[in-house]
Amino acid sequence: MSKKINILGSGFSSLSAACYLAKAGYDVTIFEKNDQIGGRARQYKNEGFTFDIGPSWYWMPGVFERFFNDFGKKPSDYYELDKLDPAYKVFFGKEDSLTVGGDLDAIYTMFEKEELGSSEHLKKFLDSAKENYETAIEDLVYKPGVSPLELVTTTTILRVTQFFSTVSKQVRKKIRSKRLIKILEFPVLFLGAKPSNTPAFYNFMNYADFGLGTWHPKGGMYTVVEAIKQLAEELGVTFQTNSNVEKIVVNKGNVTGIKVDGKTINSDIVLSGADYHHTESLLDKDDRQYSESYWSKKTFAPSSLLFYVGFDKKLKNVKHHNLFFDTDFDAHAVEIYDDPKWPTAPLFYANFTSLTDSNSSPEGKENGFFLIPLATDLEDTESLRNKYFELIIDRFEKITDQKVKNSVIFKKSFCVNDFKDQYNSYKGNAYGLANTLTQTAFLRPRIKSKKVKNLFFTGQLTVPGPGVPPALISGKIAAESILKYLK
């Protein structure tokens, strides 16, 4: 009789781990507290419009290919990918924007037009970023984070200085254009920290951006969730939604089960892809690895205020992905990390998937997804949400030179309170634990509990970090740790 492995949560890391564990022959069940699987990557539908609730950028396609290849499959067995060209548009003000093309030649041309000589600097920067990307993929991100020796390879030794410089310093060394600097610094925001606090090694995100491109799975990111669920079910994984895990049952230092809606379910192994801090709150205090003081001192990636908006007309002057950097980048970062407060003049991001994916909105209409990065644990009220919607829509109208307020059919918001309520997210963070130097690799919370036998963790608070590709990798790392433990 195969061992019973119960998994908390159904985000990308849980789905990934479930596939590997089921492939190894174990009896795997995923328990999801909400009525839809996917965790932060769920889907919202209303009046013929379809929205990805969370992740909307498909970067690092090789990670997805590697995942499916592990099961003798490929992404195209489950969903169709389109490479976006242009990749995205960056607005710095009215009639002031730069469009990032879908191939390197177009990007080099754009840089050179903006700043003479910058394309040569960019080529050297991207050569370094590509080497770092290959090092990260081959030597680092698939490691379990149990020892500092994991970071020591012949390749990483040659790059050790890049862990003690920052992305910001590296970018600004040769590039002078403030607009180009913003474009080069923005990808590390996906890692959840300021460019000035992110080790230079993480410039590999720029290679992911420019070198590998931005893609769109037809039907949205949720099609990837559905694809991995289908694969998991083919491998024998069982899913239970509307199943809130209330307690992790421990007997003499060993996990023996989980309590779901008052019922105890026996478990040989428990793996949590739910919020790490929340998961430990399901244990008695003596069984927790990390104190409240530990968590309070950590640097968390931002929270977000999101809006899902249906427009009754097609929009102009925008692309699939759009960044609105018409305000002070650094001042907004200070109000997220250093002096947490509702931002005075926030940057924001908007996507309109219906521009390239007609199935995401009714004909002649447009779906809009707007995101404002925020500090965690802020006061969150309906009046504040409405205030910021008005603020960004006013700027959107001015910058893109079109009226849209009267074309809003509906809007739905999602913010700090929702991250806490729906995902049990620590302080309402949206992306997990930031990848700062002191929160990298073995310095992140452990995959395997040091206090309780048979208890493991996966997801963006542990290795390798925030983002969808890292979540898939985290699931694989956790599964491999469990399989090694069970041998």
Strand fraction: 15-25%
Determine the structural class based on helices, strands and strand pairing. Answer: alpha/beta
Number of strands: 19
Largest sheet: 7 strands, mixed
Q: Given the C-alpha coordinates, what overall shape results?
A: globular
Distance between the termini: 15 Å
Overall residue-averaged pLDDT value: 95
Sum up the structure in keywords.
487 residues; alpha/beta; seven-stranded mixed β-sheet; five-stranded parallel β-sheet; 15 helices; 19 strands
Describe the structure.
It is built from 15 helices and 19 strands. With 487 residues, the chain is α/β, with parallel strands linked by helices. The strands form 5 sheets. The chain has a 7-stranded mixed beta sheet with strand order 7-6-15-16-17-14-18. A 5-stranded parallel beta sheet has the order 9-2-1-13-19, covered by helices on one side. Strand 3 (43-46) and strand 4 (49-52) form a beta hairpin. Helix 1 (12-23) packs parallel to helix 15 (468-486) and helix 4 (118-140) packs across helix 8. The relative contact order is 0.19. The mean pLDDT is 95.
